[in-house]
Amino acid sequence: MPNRLINETSPYLLQHAQNPVDWYAWGEEAFAKARAEDKPVLVSIGYAACHWCHVMEHESFEDPDIAAKMNERIVSIKVDREERPDVDAIYMEALQRLHGHGGWPLNMFLMPDGRPFYGGTYFPNVARVGMPSWPDVIDAVADAYQNRRENVLRNAESLTAAILASTQTAASDEPLSAAIAGDAFTQIVSSFDEEHGGFGGAPKFPQPMVLQFLLRFHARTGEPRARHVVEHTLRSMAEGGMYDHLGGGFARYATDAAWGVPHFEKMLYDNAQLASAYLHGYRLTGDEAFRTVVQETLDYLLRDLRHPLGGFFSSQDADSEGVEGKYYVWEQREIEAALGEADAAIFNRYYGVSGPGNFEGRNILHVADGPEAAGRSLGLAGDALLERLRPMRARLLEERSARVPPATDDKVLTAWNGLALRALAEAASALGEPRYREAAELNAAFVLEALHPDGRLLRTWKDGTAHLNGYLEDYACLINGLLSLHEATFAHRWLWAAKELTDEMLRLFWDEAAGGLYDVGTDHETLIVRPRDMLDNAVPSGSSAAAEALARLATLAGDEEYARRSATLLRSVAGSLGTAPMAFGNWLTALERYLADPREVAIVGSPGDPATRRLLDELARAYAPSRSLIGLDPAEERPFPSPLLKGRGQVDGKPTAYVCHGYVCDLPTTDAATLAGLLAGGVASA
Question: What is the CATH number of the domain that holds 619?
Fold first, then answer.
């Protein structure tokens, strides 16, 4: 018999709808029951692609005896962290204060007023060395709550005070200087893994925001080591087992330091951010292997994570048929049967396939030593080898598609769609790929229509239903995506939409007394604290994404108030950027935009005109991440009021480019070669 979760839209909550646990969704009903029955509250937080969440469900939440104990002694709430990042942030902070680390599933016990007093992550159904069983935890918590209430209350008060303190920030008196970025760079490269790329040891996460900062730092300073760190890391990740060499896209992280063994779930936010990082790596280096990764990753999103209406789903599970990674790994004999002996010999040499395998008797595909070395051993040139492998990969992808696939979490989240929108729009601009532009336009139109009714952005959509107030990250990530989409299309509807959302964001989330933005709006439900998480974790913090969005729109709109608020946000974390940079990757990217010399480009011309395309090709040729672009199609019906377009027209009726430095513009040009010289800074201003 289903429990209350059967009425939810979250796939994660629906996974638990048949549990014998008397689950509640987050809301007043559960807390009212706890108050009425004087019981502690369990809030159990996870997400659909979480492997250990599934393990704990199967071991404990599906067990009738354990469920009966939970139903008798506590009130149980299930939360999808992806739908409720506010609830997750509050209780993850409590968990980290308790144990010094976090993770999911997050199981936190609360007073009936929501204050936490004890918690942990995964608990087994039977006790193991160093780990109490889940039934014993339930008994101990319920006993403490009933018989040692004063101790429980002290814990709750202490943890709540610590959570409140974590939301407070203070602006630094120090200027936003290049020295901060330099200190951050020094700290980051000190943790660089020179052998395998990336940072630190196992488990190893891809850190796309840190890579973006290093790319921008190199662009501004010319520091060669920043470029080396990025190139080596991008190449190592793309060659490792964390990358899906058949279907494109990346797993969440690697369990080892060499990127060899992934934790197999695939997340929309990772793949969107990594596609952008590889795109910018390609623009800087011209390495065609990076371009291939961009295309294969975006093609994975379009093939496997896109709703027909244009929204992108959230993730794909690590497990299939109850086995982690089963969908992705291969036995040598399977490859030989699919490709034939001759082709299999080539494929297996390149992708490191062997009879014993490298993962529980099977093979995770990885590039063993690159096309040149593999080609020499096979009597092929490197380029010829890669061409031979192309149809083999397609054949094995087709073969793999006949397997039972991992479950897809098919809810559409606004913030993550904003990240995907930006990646697609940037790729459309840089690669001149119409498919990506069309997908980006469809995505933006869908999100604005389905998730922005009545002047209030919403968080999540599934099967035609959108609900939950959007968070700061939803606004900021979508605004950044829309600004990039304007650059790819010249359509001013996206600028107008970005401005509308920006003004809405500031009205709902800005607090002048606090000197910044909160993660939840003034119309949000009351929680034990009003959360404000400043750290960049797997996705940019709402505040760092907003700082970037405000700076970008400030330039295009000529709005000094947007610029002031962006700088205020940066100053609120300035004291931490140089000392803990791995936790502030997107903030550092925003800082690099602040530090870079201002450079704006306005192009007046139809984006479909080949002459306009030639001008845009010059922009795409060089990596200039802090350059701002605004376009104007002469047929635009509602031009955006930008000072960069004021008085700017076409010369002799031809598509025309204006290169500006802090709104002081060089002479206009209709010639692509002349534009290249202007972009290099070689022509006097008029």
Answer: 3.40.30
Do 263 and 116 fall within a single domain?
no
**Hey, what's the torsion of the CAs at 228, 233, 238, 241, to 10 degrees?**
150
Cα 600 to Cα 658: distance, rounded to the nearest angstrom: 8
- Note the pLDDT tens digit of each residue in 46-75: 999 888 999 999 999 999 999 999 999 999
For range 466-482, the mean pLDDT: 98
Nearest Cα to Cα of residue 176 among 572, 548, 523? 572
504 with 456, same domain: the answer is yes
Instruction: Indicate whether 379 and 516 sit together in one domain.
Output: no
Predicted confidence at residue 578, as pLDDT, reads 93
* pLDDT recorded at residue 51: 87
Q: What is the 3-state secondary structure (H, E, C) of 398-411?
A: HHHCCCCCCCEECC
487 and 501, same structural domain? yes
Q: How is residue 457 written in tokens?
A: 């952005």
Q: Taking the C-alpha atoms of 357, 362, 365 and 370 in order, what is their torsion angle to the nearest 10 degrees?
A: 10
User: How far from 99 is each of 51, 92, 142, 330, CA to CA, in Å?
Assistant: 21, 10, 20, 39
| Enclosing domain of residue 360 | 328-402
Sign of the C-alpha dihedral, residues 127, 90, 78, 14? negative
Give 47-95 as a DSSP string.
Answer: -TT-HHHHHHIIIIIT-HHHHHHHHHH-EEEEEETTT-HHHHHHHHHHH
- At 9-26, the pLDDT tens digits run 999 999 999 999 999 999
pLDDT for position 681? 67
CB of 52 closer than 8 Å to CB of 121: yes
> For the sheet containing 628-632, what is the strand order?
628-632, 600-604, 656-661, 664-665
Whether 675 is covered by a domain: the verdict is: yes
Find out whether 257 and 237 touch, Cβ atoms under 8 Å.
Answer: no
Pairing of strands 41-46, 75-80: parallel
d(CA 131, CA 438): 51
Looking at this protein, which amino acid is placed at residue 608?
G
> Does residue 683 surpass a pLDDT of 70?
no
Structure tokens at 364: 């995770």
Q: Which of 325, 462, 297, 329 is nearest to 406 (CA)?
A: 325
Under 8 Å between Cβ of 368 and 350? yes
Do strands 628-632 and 664-665 pair parallel, antiparallel, or not at all (unpaired)? unpaired
Would you say residue 541 lies in a domain?
Answer: yes
**Total domains in the fold of the chain:** 4
Same-domain status, 97 and 68? yes
Which residue, among 199, 202, 206, 225, has the nearest Cα to 214 in the 3D structure? 225
Cα–Cα distances (Å) from 156 to 141, 153, 528, in that order, read 13, 5, 11
- Chain segment 598-656, per-residue pLDDT in tens: 899 999 999 999 999 999 999 988 899 989 999 999 999 999 999 999 999 999 999 99
Is a pLDDT exceeding 60 seen at residue 255? yes
340 and 373 together in one domain = yes
In three-state secondary structure terms, 322 is coil
**Are residues 605 and 537 part of one domain?**
no
| pLDDT digits 0-9 by tens, 494-516 | 999 999 999 999 999 999 888 89
pTM: 0.95
Q: Is the pLDDT of residue 558 over 60?
A: yes
Segment 145-152 mean pLDDT: 96
The mean of the pLDDT values for the chain is 95
